[in-house]
Structure formats: C-alpha cells, structure tokens
Amino acid sequence: QSVLTQPPSASGTPGQRVTISCSGSSSNIGKNSVNWYQQLPGTAPKLLIYSNYQRPSGVPDRFSGSKSGTSVSLAISGLQSEDEADYYCAAWDDSLDGPVFGGGTKLTVL
Amino acid sequence: DVQLVESGGGLVQPGGSLKLSCAASGFTFSSYTMQWVRQAPGKGLEFVSAISGNGDDTYYANSVRGRFTISRDNSKNTLYLQMGSLRAEDMAIYYCARELRDWGQGTLVTVSS
Fold it and tell me: Which of A6, A22, A37, A40 best tests the B interface by mutation, with the highest count of B CBs <10 A?
C-alpha cells in the first residue's frame, strides 16, 4: 500500500490529452513539492516534473503538472505512442522523514 | 553530464549480505544528498535510504532500518549500500539517485536459496 495514491492505469489515443492524479495528505503533498517520473519499459525512472510543475530541460511542454491542496496531477497533451510508460509521483513526507512514492500508473496509448 | 553507475548486485541466500556501490561522475559529488531507491519485480518504487553530502546525516525506510547501512566516500565519488540479513522481500532492482533527480541504471539483487 503506497502512501501516495495513483490510479493503476490510464489510457488514451494518439493526440488526446490525458491526466494522471496523485493524492496524498497534509504531511506530504500538502506541505511539500512533488516530482513526477516516467519509467519506460526496462529502464530507470526519469524525472519528468519537479517542484509540482517545473520541467527539466529536454522534457517536452506536452507534459505539465499542477497541484491543489493534497493532490497533484500530471497532464500529457498531444499523446504519442512513445508516452506509453509507467508514471510515478513522489513527495517528501514530514511524518516518515523520507520521500514517498505513488504506486504508479501504467499509461497505455491505444 | 551526470552519470551514476551501480554495481555489486547478484544472487544471495536469505540471511546473507551484499554491498552495492554507485560510482558518480559529472558533478561535485560531495555537494549532493544521495539516495537508494528499489523496485521489486513488477512493483513500484520504494525509498530505501539517503545520506547527506558530507555523510553526517542518514535516513532509512522502516523496512530496512537496522539491516542496511548507507555510506559514501567523497574522495572516490562513490555511494555504498551495505545490506545484511537479506530477505526474499528485499529482492529488487536497486537504483542510486542524486536528490531523486538523476538516476542510475540500477543493479539487480536476487535473494533466493
């Protein structure tokens, strides 16, 4: 059971916009910033979004993050086949004194 | 470019020990907190341990506290994870990460008799 809650799966067709949610509590998302990671099959996680909505250099602006209270969302617009991957949210948890992750969302491009 | 290369994974019997290493390059190693994060087969990511840049502060997940020890050698730009009393549930790919921004490719630890 992960501390942060994500839907196990999401899907969309090419060109569509999809969103992935991540909910937490006042000890993690409510107080601290959130990162999103993309993990392509058989590879290491890659930072996609940091500090709730900032994109590292090289990440397309099709990926965006937002935050409201104790929940965050990752939006992917103009969906492409290469976006098919697992997506994870993460945040520092003040109660656990360490980072916590969501269980991951498997995105399928139909 | 930041590079993180893990090594030391392998097959170990339950109750055994293993030491992982992570060789870092492309940045000032001693300036950054480093983490170990693991991923069991077919499962999600789980924080294991972290260490501050100078090594003075360490953090552990409850699941490994008392069995694993994180350390670093800033003169060698290398991060370590000494794992002991290994259990079947410790079997995973172990990634080292720089402040959870840059990640290595991982090293597989298999715990089995």
Answer: A37
The answer to whether the Cβ–Cβ distance between A47 and B46 falls below 8 Å is no
| Mean pLDDT of the region B32-60 | 96
Which H or E run contains A67?
strand A63-68
The mean per-residue pLDDT over the stretch A45-66 comes to 96
User: What is the per-residue pLDDT for A1?
Assistant: 82
Sign of the C-alpha dihedral computed for residues B66, B68, B70 and B71 taken in this order: positive
Contacts of B23 (CB under 8 A, 6+ apart): B3, B4, B5, B7, B77, B78
Per the CB < 8 A criterion, the answer to whether B82 and B64 are in contact is no
| Å between B48 CA and nearest CA of chain A | 9
